[in-house]
Amino acid sequence: MRLLGIDLGSRAVKLAIFEEDKLAESRIYDTAAFYRDYCTNANQKISVDFAKLGLEGFDKVISTGYGRNNVNVENATVIVELKAHTFGAVWQTGLQNFTLLDIGGQDSKVISVKDSRMADMVLNDKCAASCGRYLENMAGVLGIDLDELIRYHENPVELNSTCAVFGESELIGKISEGYDIGELAAGVNYSLFKRIKPIVERFPGDNLVVSGGVARNEALISYIKKELGFKQVVIPQEPQLNGAIGCCAYYIATSRNKN
Amino acid sequence: MKRIGFTTSIPVEVIFAAGYKPVDLNNVFITDDNPGRLIEVAENEGFPRSTCAWIKGIYSAIIDRGDIDTLIGVVEGDCSNARALVEVLEQKGVNCISFSYPNSRNYDQLKKEIFKLCRYFGVEFEDCIKVKKELDAIRQRLIYLDELTWKHNRATGFENHIWQVSSSDFNGDYIGFKKELDEKIASIEKRDAKTEGKRIGYIGVPPINGDIYDFIESLNARVVYNEVQRQFTMADSVGIEDIVEVYRNFTYPYSLRGRLEDIKAQISKREIDGIIHYAQAFCFRGIEDIVIRNELKVPVLTIEGDRPGNLDQRTRLRIEAFIDMLDQ
């Protein structure tokens, strides 16, 4: 059986292709480029052009993500992203009871997973300051790449603004105070951690799984390990593809239940 | 006919008995063609951005319309913002009087407040009781409309919301209100029963984003209980002659304890699968959420609304995930 899971995120579109219950191929596109290059817009309905993607012949397509209700994916089953992330994390980690932190491009979600099912969830406040977009902007202010920014975790400067926009002004102020780039970058990473901390702490437990593009942020993970009381912090093999993988995992799990 | 505005439900019998037109200013604000503009007007006047949108909307509704002869500010039993609102409006030359639901629910104190209203409007208490009997006939019809929602499964969550919430002032004309309500009920009765998967209870102040009901229904679920809106109908006091007692039974202005008893009874009666607790941004009732979550035995989703308009994407996602979760 050949399955396609599509996670239409705010910053990236992720595709996971499953063949015989295994991840066979994956792709990640910039969201704006994906809409421009691989979607058609007819009668105000956006459709994915699979021929252009060079992807055809699926037994089932499952879609999720921010854009799932606006983009028409022919014959696709649409599932809510919290469900996709839950199934993805269970499939990738083999854990059944854990807290899942997903930090995406535009929001953060924390899900309490019990017996492989979503039991409760919290989303970040309506604000860009606790997601990937914030890190991208702040890297821009510092004039460094995101890949460099996420490495710094020692001696963070104190950034107290709860707002991403004010945070930028605060960071500029710190630059002029003469802090070095490592301390400034660590400050950005730590400020993201401070905003995520209270929502993660709503669901204490033994295991924390971190997914989403921001799971690559080494500094953030080091703060999580040091300051949150989880016995184990697990980063799945493909954190950014977790939602797309979850689409396929969901289909496999539910079609099996039906049989 | 004089128009008497108010900031939240008051003993409306007094206004009708005086021959005046009651106007729930919340309804004026939210049904305005552009409620967002009303908020801007208040913010330009100096109302903080970090203040309840309803208070700002009420302020502008009064200033904008200019046809409210007297404002009754409910300064105890609702929120302290109403007290500050009255102070601002008085300075603007609006004729304001205050009304308090005593925190103690003390009979004599509430009686004094209702008598104060009667004296102000020059009506006898007995006249109010006569009006109450007429209103009770309409309230009976509202109880039936509520049953059409949860028992007969024919009315939508929005219909349940809008008709009950409108009973705070009966749209200023209870005879016309009854006629329209009867027509609505007749049309609802003709429908087939709905068969959605999940039954949702809505608790907290009425939503500032009215599309929540239709959105929930698009997810194979339906709101079959609107807590505060039902309270506005005084449904639990139909047949009780003593108006003081009626407004003591009204749970909304008093302690959370009374509200919770009501909510729990309705959850069980209406076989509710999950509760959506709505809190207005910056409202003290958001703190009460802590108690509510601990007390209720069904899953609770807390959502927050700030400005009028459609539900934001994030709230939609949370509602979708919540209903999805109830399915498991």
- Please identify which CATH superfamily of the domain at 2-82 and 242-258 in chain A we are dealing with: ATPase, nucleotide binding domain
Instruction: Indicate the percent of residues in helices of chain B.
Output: 40-55%
List low-pLDDT spans of chain A: none
Gap from first CA to last CA of chain B = 56 Å
**Named CATH topology of the domain at 3-123 in chain B:** Rossmann fold
Strand order of the largest sheet of chain B: 2-1-3-4
What gross morphology of chain B would you assign? globular
Mean pLDDT metric of chain B = 96
How many strands in all of chain A? 13
> How are helices and strands ordered from N to C of chain A?
EEEHEEHEEEHEEEHHHHEHEH
Strand content of chain A: 25-35%
**Quaternary structure:** heterodimer
Q: Count the strands of chain B?
A: 8
String of helices and strands of chain B: EHEHHHEHEHHHHEHEHHHEHEH
Classify the fold: give the CATH topology of the domain at 2-82 and 242-258 in chain A.
Nucleotidyltransferase, domain 5
Helices of chain A, by number, come to 9
Major sheet of chain A, described briefly?
A: 5 strands, mixed
Strand content of chain B: 5-15%
Biggest sheet descriptor of chain B: 4 strands, parallel
Describe the structure.
Chain A is an alpha/beta fold and 259 residues long. Chain A has a domain of 98 residues: ATPase, nucleotide binding domain (Nucleotidyltransferase, domain 5, 2-Layer Sandwich), CATH 3.30.420. Helices cover 39% and strands 27% of the residues of chain A. Chain A contains nine helices and 13 strands. In chain A, helix 4 runs parallel beside helix 6. The longest helix of chain A is centred in the C-terminal third of the chain and has 20 residues. By secondary structure, chain B is α/β, with parallel strands linked by helices. Helix content of chain B is 52%, strand content 14%. Chain B has a four-stranded parallel sheet. Chain B has a four-stranded parallel sheet with strand order 6-5-7-8, sandwiched between helices. In chain B, helix 3 crosses helix 4, helix 7 packs antiparallel against helix 8 and helix 7 packs parallel to helix 9. The termini of chain B are far apart. Chains A and B meet through helix 3 and strand 11 of A and helix 15 of B.
